[in-house]
Amino acid sequence: xxxxxxxxxxxxxxxxxxxxxxxxxxxxxxxxxxxxxxxxxxxxxxxxxxxxxxxxxxxxxxxxxxxxxxxxxxxxxxxxxxxxxxxxxxxxxxxxxxxxxxxxxxxxxxxxxxxxxxxxxxxxxxxxxx
Length: 130
Prior knowledge:
CATH class of the largest domain: Alpha Beta
Order of helices and strands: HEHEHEEH
Distance between the termini: 43 Å
Oligomer: single chain
Shape: globular
Structural class: alpha/beta
């Protein structure tokens, strides 16, 4: 992979749990959800539009490749490495816009769509010293 021309590949990195697969918290390495409605069509549209979808996951890539195959997804790359990409699609992300003082409030407002909304992850984050 050393000589890979990332900029020419138009990679779109897509998380597995909570984006392609239904997810409501870790249940174990081999326990995965069913596909989220629209996931396969989205992958197909990316390919048809000239992009290269790559699934990134903390799980075993072979397990995820088997899952994709089982549910009729196209044969796409699966990795547990963060590749240089045009964009990263993930249910656990906060977009950084260059302002750390704004990042504090963004983190406090952050939550994933599948978590109970009364259990914020960053409620205990200390305020920045402005």
